[in-house]
Amino acid sequence: MNREKILKGKKVLIVDDEKDILDVLTELLSQCKIDAATSFEDGKRLLETSEYHIAILDIMGVNGFELLKIANQRGIPALMLTAHALTKENLKKSAENGASYYAPKDEINKIGLFVADVLEAKEKEKNVWVKWIERLGSFYDTKFGGTAWREEEKEFWKKKLEEYTGL
Fold first, then answer.
1. What is the residue range of 12's domain?
2. Are 157 and 130 contacting, i.e. CB atoms less than 8 angstroms apart?
3. 102 - beta bridge partners?
4. What pTM does this model have?
5. 129 CB contacts (<8 Å, ≥6 apart)?
């Protein structure tokens, strides 16, 4: 995958209530055209009035799950990026509700790779969750204390990894 080529010129919406996170993401995705919002209201307005290749949504401070609904209605793939809502329940909720990726802010320096994963999967009509589990499965195994989180929801994850997500 040529990450730079995939990202170059893509229009990205980032919604996070932490200004420093917006600044870091804008820097890390400098080859993209970035719109940023620090509130649910501003994020909602931008989602409803502009076209984006992808949206990066915080969960906690900006009501990311409500923004995810709007992104889905508009056909905009959404990457959920979180620190405080990093739980196996929110991971599953994100997957169930149509998110294309669920990334921890602990791995923010890899955001270009994660965004490229989503955009490449969309272009090639592939299931991005397969790439997600390859990239972040071991992170979540460590974070959630082992692989039990996968086993508890074995059928859900099996189905999620086998389906085409319809990006």
1. 3-162
2. no
3. 80
4. 0.94
5. 95, 160, 161, 165
3-state secondary structure 18-62: CHHHHHHHHHHCCCCEEEEECCHHHHHHHHHHCCCCEEEEECCCC
Q: Give mean pLDDT in consecutive 10-residue pieces for the chain, a chain of 167 residues.
A: 90 96 97 97 97 96 95 96 90 94 95 96 91 92 91 90 63
Distances from the Cα of 25 to the Cα of 6, 40, 148, angstroms: 17, 18, 32
DSSP H helices in the chain: 3-7, 19-28, 40-49, 64-73, 88-96, 111-124, 128-143, 148-152, 154-162
CATH code of 67's domain: 3.40.50.2300
When divided into structural domains, the chain yields a total of 1
> Is the CB of residue 86 less than 8 Å from the CB of residue 63?
no
